[in-house]
Amino acid sequence: MELTAKFLAQLLKGTVDGDENAKAAKFAKIEHGKPGTLSFFANPKYEPFVYTSEASILIVDKTFEPKQPVKPTLVRVENAYSAIADLLKYVSDKKKKNKRHRSLRARWFWSTRFGKKVYVGDFSFIGRHTTVGDNTIIHEHVYIGDNCTIGNGCIFYPGVRIYPGMVIGNNVILHSGVVIGADGFGNAPRPDGSWEKIEHLGNVVIGNDVEIGANTTVDRAQMESTIIGNGVRIDNLCMIAHNVIIGDHTAMAAQTGIAGSTEVGKYCIFGGQVGIAGHVKIADHTTIMAQAGIIGNIRKEGEVLLGSPAIPARKFMKSYALFKRAAEE
User: Mean pLDDT, to the nearest integer, of 210-221?
Assistant: First the structure.
């Protein structure tokens, strides 16, 4: 798709500095900009590349003032990072095929209910008494069990597995390998040291506008529901255990694991490989940095935590300076 600077300014509500007829057909990182590509500049540490970039078009903040001559045509916007996100979504939507049919090589039942313009790919299975909302795309080799409720505008990529009885809201994206609704890790010890499986009879309820990355698992509750709130973002290879509740608009990076019956607040941010023990509560707006371990309740909103067991990040860095110095003596 070829884009002109003039069109980009109109689309992103910006202005053009330079040739409004400059064209770009590909995206490139600012350090790799070449003629015919489009880049963006949002992080100050990348400013040196602004002056060496050969890109045809560069999206920048309106407030940016170059300190040296710049070759690319500049498209000035309110926020370059937000603008490039909007632009990538626009291009992605344009490239998507208008898939609106149900393959004869897929399987469903008379009791399965489809909304308008639903796509079902080859060899997918949709169970009895399951409802699928309007404009949902179910790619190839997806399994959806009986008695599920799927909202409007969802996208399920190949290899998604949704157990019976799950409830999924509108505009939910599940990437390949996601498993929704497997039994939780519930086992009771017997007197002889062996284990008795505890059955899980609940389900998973996923809110609206949620995206879950590849090979992430969300377990069903023992009773009631495991709940993923609206607007939650979960990266690849995460583990959400039974009876967990995740508040709206929380985001977590890859390899985060949350043990059973934990309640996570709204607008939290978890770095990669964060581990959270079971039966704890985490306040709204908590930030947990990479590889931190949480073993108790976080009651104060807005804390930034680091370490294992995690403590406030500033305290951890002071402690780190001490034990690093001790190791050098």
Answer: 98
For β-strands 187-189 and 195-197, DSSP reports them as antiparallel
Query: What percentage of residues in the chain have a pLDDT greater than 90?
Result: 88
From 200, 242, 279, 285, the catalytic residue: 242
Nearest of 116, 220, 212, 215 to residue 167 by alpha carbon = 220
As a whole number of angstroms, the longest Cα–Cα distance in the chain is: 79
Peptide bond between residue 309 and the one before it cis (omega within 30 degrees of 0): yes
Alpha helices in 25-152 (DSSP H): 47-50, 80-95
pTM of the predicted structure, to 2 decimals: 0.84
Tokens for 28? 């490139």
Domains with residue ranges and CATH for the chain: 3-95 (3.40.1390.10), 113-316 (2.160.10.10)
* Distance in angstroms (rounded) separating the CA atoms of residues 174 and 71: 41
To the query of whether residue 139 is one of the catalytic residues in this protein, the response is no
